[in-house]
Amino acid sequence: MCALLRPHLIYETLDAVPSDELLRRGVRLVLLDIDNTLAPYTRQTAGDALRAWAEAMRGAGLTLYLLSNNKGTRPETFATELDLPYVKRAKKPSPEAARSIMAELNVSPKETAIVGDQIYTDMLCAHRCGCLAVLIEPIELHNIWLRLRYWAERPFRRVHS
Ligand SMILES: [Mg+2]
User: Fold this and answer.
1) Where do the domains of the chain lie?
2) Which of 14, 19, 137, 161 fits as disulfide partner to 60, beta carbons 3.0 to 4.6 Å?
3) Is the pTM of this model over 0.90?
4) pLDDT tens for each residue of 52-64
């Protein structure tokens, strides 16, 4: 079970995820979690820094796609601001939504990275799809439930060997 939960790569922040390392591993498509990966739950807009980051990743040759479990309007807001396609209500760790995006873009799991802040949704989804699992630290643990979940994830926040 550990192998299905542990990430292949871990970074402190989204900014620290190196496009050249992803490209070196053959990644062409990056499926991005939104909440606490792109922005904390408490921030409602993407903002200039995130737009610049997305532009730099696309400039490096990576295709970005938002893959969010959020059921509200946040995915549309971020997708519009960042000019990216998106899927909401993705039900990660279910692999279905990620697989349908890969099929739509004709990209294989080996060429796809899933980037997110959660072990039991994002990382498990990545492993179930056969994608590169890239974990970042959640941006802000602003309530007790997020802190408890983070605590429960701690044993798996280590790189898969
Ligand atoms: Mg998240």
Assistant:
1) 5-156
2) 19
3) yes
4) 999 999 999 999 9
